[in-house]
Predict the 3D structure of the following.
Amino acid sequence: MADLPDVWPEIAREPLADCRVFSVSRSLARSPRTGGEHAFFRIDADDWVNLVPVTPEGQVVMVRQYRHGSRDVTLEIPGGIVDPGESPAEAAARELLEETGYRAERVVRTGSVNPNPALFGNRVHSFAAFDVRWEREIRNESTEHTAVELLPLSDVDEALRAGRISSALVVAAFHWLRLHREGAP
């Protein structure tokens, strides 16, 4: 078996940009193999959450919204940033209510991933909520404009195959949900 790579010790870090929801820094790190110094760039962000909310009728509460990065209107599940002092579970329930008007009595953690280890240091915590119920109108603020769309849970695989759901983090959340439902640890 080949030698496993070692962690590159960080020698210095320089903040480059504060972009409101994330910051960018340049890190100088030393190769443990050669001793050479190399610059790397990193995006620092707070942890994120997303949530697969399912109604008693088996409908997934989805969100349509414009995403500037892809310059497209996407079909996603509710999600967002974990606020300071808030647990990921609390953030997931809050985002569900804010973005859809639906309330979850209980959220269940299904898994967690790093969005892109080459650039990010944060985690995306995925949750599921069953028997969610509509409570109030959506309160879109600032740059958010969401519209709710219900998708039968039985149609999710086809929506994924057809590319109607294209966010990697949403795909990961549905994968975590499948593992949770199959009883995987």
